[in-house]
Design goal:
Length: 472
């Protein structure tokens, strides 16, 4: 592309983004499309010769945007809401422009050092120990997989790095523990690592849906007696369904005593710890071997940006370092080559957007946004509690509220279907996007507040829409 042409289209794109981020509610939060609609609207084969960017950008506006679910929309309250920001977009654009591949320090000195520095800032914001070393990955799912791969290196005598796990009658079963409420990425990690789903113990939870540490101790003991090797525990700070918080300190003490790796999944909830008054949510995490938290979830940083901290970078490196001849460098052992800490050789310059966000907002700016989301969630909980036809289904630990509509005299199984149909009606109308979960088997509606555009009014409207859908 000619520089003059790039300038012209670049300005148009920046204008489009500015308009979009100013008022994402101009588009419905959920698009009016069915599977296959976009595919069918586009040519099945690529153009043989280059097309004008005017035409391509016109198609972006005409076809792509209307077929998009708008995560930036203030009424996006499904799953864990997230948001893009000017700061994040500028960082992302410059990442694409520099296009460095930070596999080695040499191939990306700025990318490598800014990643380490920015994650050290973020570590301080979260109140984690200065022994924690952080790297950025694509998702929490990958990072949890890496943490559990590192956990295997707590047992070098097993020789898994060299000999693998298959075809080895000498290798006892390895066992990983998490609660019944843990994220499915733990299941995927054990599937991938050769531990297998039958090597994963789902520990029961207490009345607040927190892992029962006594039941964990019993399970570890039982596995040892059976000749298995308890390997790691995954504790969750802010479970995906109900945002419950496992008793990390108790679990950490147990892991220390039993010599198990402790991985903490704080993908969503960890961000709350940037508030001094919420720092308790990471209580005990100083005793973890690793912890994952996603700035792409609740820290206004565009997808993808997931942070893995570990107090054992030596073991993470032992799990993944494998230097091909062409990657041997002259800088010596002191320099960090980020390719050594995960499966990816090529690494994007992801730190730039996070650094832009932290500098652009400042720690206090970020705190006031998170604080406001938590305040709105508490207000929502009160509206629900004050309405006799609504029932709250769990504590508000962060910025997510679970509830259901409960007409008098309706049976439990009918309540499930009733609330399921409320959600279908609601999302079908495309004015607000909510998701659901199950709390002890019961169907619950879920409002997650995490979008930078979402105000108290948006949440009030969402609740009114739930009431209307319930009446209909
Ligand atoms: C969202 C979430 C994940 C998965 O995050 P990805 O980055 O999408 O892989 C894992 N654990 C918890 C607790 C989550 O909330």
């Amino acid at each position: 592309m000619e520089p003059t042409e790039f300038r012209r289209h670049g300005h148009a794109v920046v204008d489009w983004i500015a308009d979009y981020l100013e008022a994402p509610e101009k588009w419905p939060v959920l698009p009016d499309v069915r599977p296959g609609d976009l595919r069918n609207a586009l040519p099945a084969s690529p153009p043989l010769s280059g097309e004008s960017m005017d035409v391509v950008l016109a198609d972006f506006r005409k076809l792509i945007v209307p077929a998009t679910t708008h995560w930036n929309h203030p009424a996006f309250m499904a799953y864990f809401a997230n948001s893009s920001t000017g700061e994040g977009v500028l960082g992302e654009a410059l990442t694409a422009a520099l296009n460095v591949n930070a596999m080695l320090w040499r191939t990306g000195p700025a990318a490598t050092e800014l990643e380490l520095l920015t994650l050290d800032w973020f570590r301080q914001m979260l109140g984690l120990p200065d022994s924690f070393f952080g790297v950025i990955g694509d998702t929490a799912s990958s990072n949890t997989l890496y943490a559990l791969a590192a956990a295997r290196e707590l047992h070098p005598e097993l020789g898994i790095r060299e000999h693998g796990m298959s075809g080895r009658p000498d290798l006892p079963r390895l066992v990983v523990y998490c609660s019944e409420e843990a994220h499915s990425s733990v299941d995927k990690a054990v599937m991938t690592l050769g531990i297998g789903l039958s090597g994963l113990r789902k520990i029961p939870t207490d009345e607040k849906l927190r892992m029962d540490a006594n039941a964990l101790a019993v399970a570890i003991e039982k596995d040892r007696k059976a000749g298995s090797i308890p390997l790691a525990v995954v504790a969750t700070v802010g479970t995906t369904g109900t945002t419950s918080i496992d008793p990390v300190r108790e679990i950490a003490d147990l892991c220390k005593h039993e010599k198990l790796w402790l991985h903490v999944d704080a993908s969503y909830g960890g961000t709350a710890a940037i508030l001094p008054e919420m720092r308790y949510v990471l209580d005990g995490c100083d005793g973890a071997h690793s912890l994952v938290v996603n700035p792409h979830k609740w820290l206004f940083t565009p997808m993808d940006c997931s942070v893995l901290y570990t107090s054992r970078p030596d073991l993470l490196k032992r799990a993944f370092q494998h230097v091909a001849d062409y990657l041997v460098v002259i800088e010596g052992a002191d320099v960090v080559n980020l390719m050594d800490y995960g499966i990816a050789l090529g690494r994007r310059f992801r730190a730039l957007k996070l650094w832009f966000v932290i500098r652009g907002f400042g720690v206090e700016g970020l705190r006031s946004l998170i604080r406001e989301h938590i305040r709105i969630a508490k207000a929502l909980a009160k509206w629900i509690d004050d309405d006799p036809t609504l029932e709250r289904m769990s504590d508000v630990n962060f910025s997510t509220v679970l509830f259901r509509h409960r007409p008098p005299k309706m049976r439990e199984d009918e309540l499930d279907l009733h609330n399921e149909s409320i959600l279908q009606k609601l999302n079908g109308a495309r004015k607000v996007y909510l998701s659901h979960t199950r709390v002890r088997g019961r169907y619950a509606l879920r409002i997650a507040i995490g979008n930078i555009h979402t105000t108290e009014d948006d949440v009030r409207v969402a609740l009114d829409l739930v009431r209307e859908a319930a009446k209909a």
